[in-house]
Amino acid sequence: MVNKLYPDAASALEGLLFDGMHLCAGGFGLCGIPERLIDAIRDSGVRDLTIASNNAGVDGEGLGKLLRTRQVRKMISSYVGENKEFERQYLAGELEVEFCPQGTLAERCRAGGAGIPGFYTRTGVGTAVAEGKEVKSFDGQDYILERGIFADVAVIKGWKADESGNLIFRKTARNFNQPMATAAKICVAEVEEVVPTGSLDPDAIHLPGIYVKRMIVGAPYDKKIEFRTVRQREAV
Questions:
Q1: Residue spans per domain, the chain
Q2: CATH match for 9-117+149-217 among 3.20.20.100, 3.40.1080.10, 3.40.50.300, 3.30.1490.20
Q3: What's the pLDDT score for residue 221?
Q4: Are strands 141-147 and 212-217 parallel, antiparallel or unpaired?
């Protein structure tokens, strides 16, 4: 059996990173993001990255760390409203942004992983999203052509994996991790726990190990909250 488990994030990414590369990154906000791998990408100093991710983290957390160090050239994203540095760089013309509807982004990654170079969707027809894209009519309705996404490397976060790389995501942390994992030549996963091969129920596996080339154990984690909302105490 091939040993997919590496001692740390830096060694798991060794030989994979280069300037100008295209990355897919799982996560939604701060939920299910590959924290250790993002830190290792930052520390590597690789630059001019194109990153496909639902969002760019928040200021100083997640992919926001790579924005702060100016290592990102282009973001392909759906939701970026919680990151002031993202906004500043975009408005200043320092960061190229390809906005993509959330469902379309997920399907573009799924399509890339399935070997589908493009697909037609009604989402975005008649809006700025459709600018410069082919429009085709099916049954009297207009659809726009969206390209599949296939990157050099995908970095994802899982909950539990076995030694073969079969992987389970935990609840909402599944989010974009699953489609991103298949949409790259090499998928590197960080997980909270690794168990012996055969320990996981085959019916419970979300991502087959054939997609996972390298793994690290990233635990323990601090559970970060983007917006902490508390209920005011009622007057006694």
A1: 9-117+149-217
A2: 3.40.1080.10
A3: 84
A4: unpaired
